[in-house]
């Protein structure tokens, strides 16, 4: 398995971010401080000069048909060749033959049905991250799609508009499968959001950011030690540019790195955050920097309207350049960012309080939740349908000093506090994934509605969940 811990990228995290020993003798086997040594700048030099390739926008998939009011899609899970280094293709695992899988654009209230056919020679499955779905359609880690088999998932899309994503969640192999490319956007639009007149159409751009290890031959390296994942990819391209008009854009930022945080700045331009994991915030928040980690989403609006043609603005992580925006033209703009977006739902009255801990065992090679490795035959929490609960989530990894992330399936939650203090700006809104530093406790609240059955909760550093840092709850009547 890969080395644990965030390898560079988030300046807000302390220098104690280290890697744990690897389970593979071929990989890094000791503590190494995180920082610029594992950043995207070094990778850009290795792959060629920055800003030489245009950032592609992931293809938006068209339904094969509409049946009884349901949009129907078919997506093969297949190998493909992809050139991270121009002229040097390397094997990847894909949804539909694309390294960033095709975007599914759904509508609130319009169901979607997706049939995935596994053309790989390994098992897979699909989890729609951030979605409110029945257990049978959640992508349960043991509900596997065998090679040559198909599985159909039904997504009712009853939730408000949000930037979601779909990815492999087959237990024990999710880390490798997602690293090799099994990830894509799933965007839910709703009429209430459309009425706000935010930037839309071609000015609403999904941007997937992650890291990878690419060797001198252009090969995507696996197994991969975290400190060696020095290439930062933006929609599959290292340090690309993107041409924009002098007007407002909505950028949907998604971090799909297996074990990576980013702290982003934009060359002095303000970034106006309008949404987080679960959709719109109550009001826009102007940010000079944004920190987000594996699995999190942040929607921002950037206004280029006052910038002269020829202006260039670099989106940077502390480790190096990520993406350059080039203002190349003018365009009409009737969009706006209103002062009020969408009120958050009432928190409700909690009736149950639970404690969750995350850490590695003493060997560093097994992940634990509440001191136990994942066992699909064990139910860790029974949750009453309709209940509102508070969970105290603590990173107790004092031996390895590794950060972890907490991801809850089925429901969005609200962050109430961090170590007893107010949540940060990065915790705002409805969340399903949050960073938890060593020794830190976050207090979250969720209401469990409608669906029954078993759902996981886990560290969303997939290198950690794949070796056991996962547990499960069962929603009961």
From TrEMBL:
Assigned protein family: Belongs to the multicopper oxidase family.
Positions of the UniProt region annotated as Disordered: 20-41
Domain (Plastocyanin-like) ranges: 78-192, 231-311, 363-475
Alphabetical keyword list: Metal-binding, Oxidoreductase
Family matches, as InterPro entries: Cu-oxidase-like_N (IPR011707), Cu-oxidase_2nd (IPR001117), Cu-oxidase_C (IPR011706), Cu-oxidase_fam (IPR045087), Cu_oxidase_Cu_BS (IPR002355), Cupredoxin (IPR008972)
Keyword Cell membrane: no
Single GO molecular function: oxidoreductase activity
Protein name: Bilirubin oxidase
């Amino acid at each position: 398995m890969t080395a644990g811990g965030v390898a560079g990228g988030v300046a807000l995290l302390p220098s104690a971010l280290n890697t744990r020993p690897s389970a593979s003798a071929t990989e890094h086997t000791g503590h190494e401080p995180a920082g610029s040594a594992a950043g995207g700048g070094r990778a850009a030099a290795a792959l060629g000069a920055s800003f030489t390739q245009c950032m592609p926008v992931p293809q938006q998939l068209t339904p094969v048909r509409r049946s009884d009011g349901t949009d129907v899609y078919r997506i093969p899970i297949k190998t493909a060749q992809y050139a991270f280094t121009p002229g040097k293709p390397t094997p990847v695992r894909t949804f539909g033959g694309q390294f960033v899988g095709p975007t599914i654009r759904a509508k609130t209230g319009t169901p979607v049905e997706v049939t995935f056919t596994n053309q790989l020679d390994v098992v897979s499955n699909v989890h729609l991250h951030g979605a409110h779905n029945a257990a049978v359609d959640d992508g349960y880690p043991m509900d596997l799609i065998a090679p040559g088999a198909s599985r159909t998932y039904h997504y009712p899309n009853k939730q408000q508009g949000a930037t979601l994503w779909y990815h492999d969640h087959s237990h024990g192999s999710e880390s490798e499968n997602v690293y090799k490319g099994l990830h894509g956007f799933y965007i839910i639009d709703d009429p209430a959001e459309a009425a706000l007149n935010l930037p839309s159409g071609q000015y609403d751009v999904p941007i997937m950011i992650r890291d990878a290890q690419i060797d001198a031959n252009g090969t995507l390296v696996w197994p991969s030690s975290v400190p060696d994942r020095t290439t930062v990819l933006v929609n599959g391209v290292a340090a690309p540019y993107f041409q924009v008009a002098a007007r407002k854009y909505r950028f949907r930022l998604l971090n799909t790195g297996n074990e990576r945080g980013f702290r982003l700045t934009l060359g002095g331009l303000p970034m106006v955050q309008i949404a987080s994991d679960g959709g719109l915030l109550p009001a826009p928040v102007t940010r000079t920097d944004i920190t987000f980690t594996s699995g999190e989403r942040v929607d921002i609006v950037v206004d280029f309207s006052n910038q002269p043609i020829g202006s260039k603005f670099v989106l940077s992580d502390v480790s190096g350049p990520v993406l350059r925006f080039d203002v190349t033209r003018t365009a009409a703009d009737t969009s706006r960012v209103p002062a009020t977006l969408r009120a958050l739902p009432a928190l409700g009255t909690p009736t149950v309080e639970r404690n969750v801990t995350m850490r590695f065992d003493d060997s560093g090679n097994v992940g634990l939740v509440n001191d136990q490795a994942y066992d699909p035959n064990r139910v860790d929490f029974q949750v009453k349908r309709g209940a509102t609960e508070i969970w105290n989530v603590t990173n107790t990894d004092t031996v390895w000093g590794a950060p972890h992330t907490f991801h809850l399936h089925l429901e969005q939650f609200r962050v109430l506090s961090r170590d007893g203090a107010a949540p940060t700006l990065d915790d705002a809104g409805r969340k399903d994934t949050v960073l938890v530093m060593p020794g830190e406790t976050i207090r979250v609240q969720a209401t469990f509605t409608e669906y029954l059955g078993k759902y996981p909760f886990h560290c969303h550093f997939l290198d950690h969940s794949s070796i056991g840092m996962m547990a499960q709850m069962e929603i009961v009547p």
